[in-house]
Amino acid sequence: MKVTIIKLGFLVLLLNSCTPGGKLAEVASNALKPTVTTEQVPNDTDDPAIWVNPKDSTEVFVLGTDKHEKTGGLYLYDMDGKIVNKVTPLDRPNNVDIAYGFNLNGRIVDIAVVTERGADKIRVFTLPDLKPIDDGGIPVFEGEKERSPMGIALYTKPDSVGNKIQAIVGRKTGESGRYLFQYDLIDKGGVVIGKKVREFGKFEGGKEIEAIAVDDELGYVYYSDEGFGIHKYYADVFHGDMELTVFGTKDFKEDHEGIAIYQSTDSTGYIVVSNQQNNSFNIYPREGAKGNPNQHQRIAEVPVSAIECDGAEAISIPIGGKFPKGMLVAMSNGKVFHYYDWRSIQDSINVKK
Prior knowledge:
There is one protein chain. By secondary structure, the protein is mainly β. The chain contains 1 helix and 26 strands. It has one helix at 342-352; strands at residues 10-13, 25-28, 36-37, 45-52, 60-66, 72-77, 83-90, 93-104, 107-116, 121-126, 138-139, 149-156, 165-171, 180-187, 192-200, 209-215, 220-225, 229-234, 243-247, 256-263, 269-275, 280-285, 300-303, 312-315, 327-332, 336-341. It is globular.
């Protein structure tokens, strides 16, 4: 498959209130425009997740973190970008992910799990009401010199009775080979606790590891080694800690950031990774190359209007008339998230193939 990279002609936008130190931020003149831009949070957006009501697929909410120290929070948005619920205050909540079908004291619930970096904990809330079920939080990286949890992705074991859910957590700094910790999330009489089951994850010493994504159906976990590349491992502990591949090492302007998985079918689709300083997303085949599922070569770069995107999430189910093929949600400077119609992203990908 031939790879063609979009040649960007830049339009400079003055965003002094949105970028650190009043810097100029650039977006491409041909950048995709969001269908929806959310209401602003008080401080600094970081990472989104998407929840679809399993009993009514027309009910969809986007979750997003506001990562301020002491006064941060977790926000719930409707499909018009309006804030409809929130959990505040949280102490520097970084990343968020969701999982379905957690058995809580005999009741099946969906959960959102957030890294609370300032407290060295992960927090667990039911969806969509955002009720805490963690007795104040689950400590992570206990006994480690460096803790500061940042990234998180939830893995649901497909062959487990009762949908066993695990949290894969990254931290601000850590040792190569054990940068990430993996925890069973366990119900203990209506309170969720964590049990560490794994330490893994190479680090090449670029900047840090934050963005993590799990592909439940194919059984893989991906994480961004900022300034270096995207690492791929098996998500299941019992498959071992062998690194399967590193890709995208030459495709980014600077930082490798948010990762999203878009599922076209059960086994095909795209790995979407934020090229943060280029205000674009690099697109890789989810299924890999023919004959090699661990060969992920960039097939497109899609410029977007989101500025310096940290976190992203994608979904492929139809969501009303605005998003009939699903959407990509991207954090943007300016204290907001963008909702992009997947059709526009797919059109850009098709042009490059």
